[in-house]
Write a structure and sequence with these properties.
There is one protein chain. By secondary structure, the chain is α/β, with parallel strands linked by helices. It has one domain (3-302): 3-Layer(aba) Sandwich (Rossmann fold), CATH 3.40.50.880. It has helices at residues 10-17, 25-29, 47-58, 82-88, 92-95, 121-134, 143-153, 198-202, 241-251, 277-293; strands at 3-4, 22-23, 36-41, 65-70, 89-90, 100-105, 135-141, 157-172, 185-196, 207-213, 217-223, 228-231. Strands 1, 2, 3, 4, 5, 6, 7, 8, 9, 10, 11 and 12 form a twelve-stranded mixed beta sheet that branches. It is globular, with a radius of gyration of 18 Å. The two termini are 28 Å apart. The record marks 111 as: Important for acyl-CoA specificity. Its main location: cytoplasm. The active site is at 142 (acyl-thioester intermediate), 234 (proton acceptor), 236.
Length: 304
């Protein structure tokens, strides 16, 4: 089934070239199906890239999905044009009276800041609180996961001596529908300067540790009802995303480690393998199916 996108969104052209089934509002109107309403709070600096990565995964299920893109009103984006934001994004004040089947909170490259020093932290916490009553299930990614764990459950992020950077093997700690079909050892990228301590997660009775990595630590955490899901890595990343980040940091003369388990023979001139792709598709399709589609009411006005 298709993913419904605004006409003119740059990601639409990219996905069509990849033969991902997308459609505009006019075609969706003629289908007698209520699409799942998914809100994407995009905190990434280059928003077009994050849009394409997430929409690619959301478009790979039998479910019709309608996307709303949300930006922070209290933050001025520097790497995305004003024209793009005005054309395709909305603000919280415009949607706060609405309900959504699902929500995605992306990462953000601001790990060096304490949460309370992030300029848009008050607005973000308001949205996170709102999601508990207005969203069936929310999935938080990387910094978004750390922010959600801290705000909802008081779990602090902890700085790392060296950047967690590369593609790591993970294991399943608790067999739930979110990880149904996963291999016993599966791969996912990480790119972060801080972490969440496993002991802090296990000490919180409201949370379940779903997956972890011997090298990268805590990976997936969720509440028992699946309303809140936290993913500390970046399964949505494209093949070249870590490479682009590495080369960009080197050009800036930053001291960054070579991404682990990523470049063939640890040679940055070689093309990395995209060996986490199937896990990424499965993670998001399981989320949409088991935690959104099968849990959300047909009439969203009855949500909570």
């Amino acid at each position: 089934m298709p993913i419904k996108l605004p006409e003119g969104l740059p990601a639409k052209r990219v996905l069509e070239q990849e033969h991902v089934f997308v459609m505009d509002e006019q075609r969706a109107f003629h289908q007698d199906i209520r699409p799942l309403k998914i809100l994407i709070l995009n905190l990434m600096p280059i928003k077009e890239t994050a849009e394409t990565q997430l929409l690619r995964l959301l478009g790979n299920t039998p479910l019709q999905v309608e996307i709303t893109l949300l930006r922070m009103e209290t933050h001025q984006a520097k790497n995305t044009s004003t024209e793009h934001l005005q054309a395709f994004y909305t603000t919280f004040r415009d949607i706060e009276r609405q309900n959504f089947d699902g929500m995605i909170v992306t990462g953000a490259p601001i790990e060096h800041l304490p949460f309370e020093e992030v300029a848009y932290w008050p607005e973000l916490t308001r949205i996170l609180d709102w999601s508990r009553q207005h969203v069936t299930s929310t999935i938080h990614i990387c910094w978004g996961a750390q922010a959600g764990l801290y705000h909802h459950y008081g779990i602090a992020k902890r700085p790392l001596a060296e950047k967690m950077f590369g593609v790591f093997t993970h294991e399943i700690c608790l067999d739930i529908p979110l990880v149904r079909g996963f291999d016993e050892g599966f791969l996912a990228p990480h790119s972060r300067h801080s972490t969440v301590d496993e002991k802090d997660v296990l000490a919180c009775p409201e949370l379940q540790l779903i997956s972890k990595s011997k090298e990268a630590g805590v990976y997936i955490v969720a509440t028992e009802d699946g309303q809140q899901i936290f993913v500390t890595g970046h399964s949505e990343y494209d093949r070249e995303t870590l490479a682009e980040e590495y080369h960009r940091d080197i050009e800036r003369q930053l001291q960054v480690p070579l991404p682990k388990n990523y470049f063939p023979n640890d040679d940055p001139s070689q093309t990395p393998l995209h060996n986490w792709r199937s896990h990424a598709y499965l993670l998001f399709s399981n989320w949409l199916n088991y935690y959104v589609y099968q849990q959300t009411p047909y009439d969203l006005s009855s949500l909570h």
